[in-house]
Amino acid sequence: MSVLPSKAYRAGIPAAVIALVVSGAGRAAEFAAGGFSFSDELGGFRLLAATGSGTPGDPVVLVEEIYDVAPATLVIRNLDLVAGRPLQTQFTLVKHVTNRSVRVWAAFEFELQEAEGKPSVYSDGLSFKQFASIDSDVASDSFAKNERDFEPYDRIQFIDGHVDPDAAGEFKVIITDATPIPQFYLVQEPKLLSAGLPPARRHFAAVAPPPPNHPTAFPDAD
User: Fold this and answer.
1) Given a cut of 80, is residue 114 above it in pLDDT?
2) Hey, what's the torsion of the CAs at 197, 203, 204, 208, to 10 degrees?
3) Residue 12 bridge partners (DSSP)
4) Of the candidates 159, 171, 88, 173, which has an alpha carbon nearest to the alpha carbon of residue 129?
């Protein structure tokens, strides 16, 4: 059962789609939610929408499509730092990612970077809630397990499941950003199958329904 009301989510989609269309074909999309902005300007995927305030009960939900089995980097900007407001240091993020490649994703990895292309280090203040983390901070509806690598990187790899072509997976993480730098990066990388296909285990309630008119769109909540 979704933690986001279907009607509220769908009400936010048209404005997000309009922002994408106005940006023009072939140009980057950037959306604001939860005090941060999110952009696909570095390419490799398409960002379709962003909603939510970033709290555990109302996470930032990003709707995306990835077209290849290769790293794709999301650019994240802290709007409070950009505007000189008090710093918001933590938010809950759910990514609803559709596999638009022709390959089965057998794992999925996230890595935080303060500087593009350079591993995040212990002292930079950027992490997947490295301190006081609990198991429920990280979850997926398509992968039963996850492996966390906090030193010398900030990485989470989802394993023991799969996402088929044209299917979607959901991934929940909590990001802590106590850095004085207004921009950081989230590298996301689907992984190919290397042995037998593991079963997908749906243990994480979906929080981000597909866009309206999608054949798997959820019915309106009662």
Assistant:
1) yes
2) 60
3) none
4) 173
